[in-house]
Amino acid sequence: MSRVTRSAATSYALSLAAMEEASRVGLRQADLEHLFLALSISEEPAGQVLRAEGVTLRAAREAIAEHHTEHLRALGVDHEPPAPGPIVFHQTGGYEWSERAQRVITLANKHGSGDAGAVLRELLAEPSGLAAELLARLGTSAAAVTERLEVAERIPTFGSRRAQAGPGAERPGVAAEREVTSPGASPARNQLMRTGTAFVPAPVAELWELLIAAERMPEWDVIVGEVELPAELRGLHPKLGDAWAATARSEAPDGKPMRVRPERRSLLVELTQLDEHSRIEWRMSFPDEPSANTRVIALSLAPAAGGTQLGITFGWQPPADRPAAGPLRRAQRVLLRPALRFVLWLQVAQLGSGISRVFRSA
């Protein structure tokens, strides 16, 4: 992944998480503390370092609340700030960065790679000293975090390009595309799928209970509106090979109607892989449009400091009886590949954010 692409991915993830946090306290402007919270749930090395130093989302929220309470008391205001509520970012609008938070992100791109590590360094160097103060409240320091970050960024992740190509190659923690061939398929039928990671601030067992509950899919999947479980599956965890009907979401969280073609309104969801508390995969097809690609979602879970590291694979699988693409269609695919990669990346990002948000909104 290029520096520009990595920077854009980081900016999107941090902006979304920070503005979601701002929405919990009724603000439409995300400031330094919201950027700090967003970094605490980043899947990149910067987030892992913060959590290893005890900067979990819950602890960071408490430290910020204490900071605001003490600040108000110093001004002679002796009452608690309003209690935070659920995340309402997706139901509302008009969010933006504060000037000083935007400056941190700008400097992270100017002085560094624009990834979460660069943003964290600029946040620690920001003149107000807010991040350093919050770290002190949490039992650590800017120096300790910086030292651990430098060590973490030198360690390649197994299977990453950096591990294979040596220093200077792509760092882990951001989504990457890969070619996947269906069993028995010819090279011309290769699928472009997207893989990525996300951090979820919940133990593996709690996250598994969310994912294995078929009726809870609408809580985290932006496509699924309602689930229609057969009587024999209601109240039970589905087993490998089970299938159920669902309907596509017709309305966005902010109430605006979503355009869904009539033949894409009905979904058939099949549970195709199941490894208890470790891996789960669904395939979603469109019964009213048999020629459409099947939507594939695979998730893997691994314990991590402060929660769960979530591996995400998303893609579309062509029907087995679809004729092989001719030269013209293959050429069109090459031209459209950048757009397709972006769409797949966005799907991975939305899945990770949606699953994480279930536990962050409480």
TrEMBL record:
InterPro entries: Clp_N_dom_sf, Polyketide_cyclase/dehydratase, START-like_dom_sf. The keyword Mitochondrion does not apply. One of its GO terms (biological process) is proteolysis. Residues 161-189 are annotated as: Disordered. Pfam families: Polyketide_cyc2. It comes from the Bacteria. Keywords: Hydrolase, Protease. The keyword Oxidoreductase does not apply. One of its GO terms (molecular function) is peptidase activity. This is Clp protease N-terminal domain-containing protein. It comes from Leucobacter albus. The lineage of its organism: Bacteria, Bacillati, Actinomycetota, Actinomycetes, Micrococcales.
